[in-house]
Design a protein that fits this description.
It comes from Actinomadura monticuli. With 138 residues, the chain is an alpha+beta fold. Helix content is 33%, strand content 20%.
């Protein structure tokens, strides 16, 4: 999968045999089985869920680029179908950084800009994430 808006982020999807005869699975390069071959839309939905935090972070990095006589771009909002979208939008509004829910880690994550050195931080709940973000900015 490739998007020219974020050429450095993508994923290779392959079909791998399942343990059941005549069944194949779409598999992400992360190793996650996305869906059986009979459900390509589900595979696309799941890879979108996996890539959203990375694509959002790549787009967010652009919001901090400044060119002469240009203002910063706004932080991208989460996709409305993303798990915890309302909480993510609230976290981003309160912190000013990209945040997301880690489906596999079951933790909250944020990308905190810091000049040439950005930090990825995590916490078990939204309020704790805000505190970790504040500490990362010091």
């Amino acid at each position: 999968m490739f998007d020219p808006a974020v050429p450095d982020v993508g994923d290779s999807i392959t079909l791998v045999p399942a343990t059941t005869p005549d069944v194949w699975w779409y598999r992400s390069s992360t190793g996650e089985d996305l869906a059986p071959h009979t459900r390509p839309a589900l595979a696309a939905e799941r890879i979108t869920r996996i890539l959203i935090p990375y694509v959002t972070a790549a787009l967010a990095a652009r919001t901090h680029e400044r060119r002469p006589a240009e203002t910063a771009r706004p932080t991208p909002l989460p996709h409305p179908d993303q798990p915890h979208a309302a909480t993510i939008a609230d976290l981003q509004e309160r912190s000013g950084v990209i945040c997301w829910w880690g489906v596999h880690t079951e933790e909250w994550w944020a990308l905190v800009p810091g000049g040439t050195r950005w930090r990825i931080v995590n916490a078990p709940d939204p309020e704790a994430l805000l505190r970790v973000i504040a500490r990362a900015r010091r």
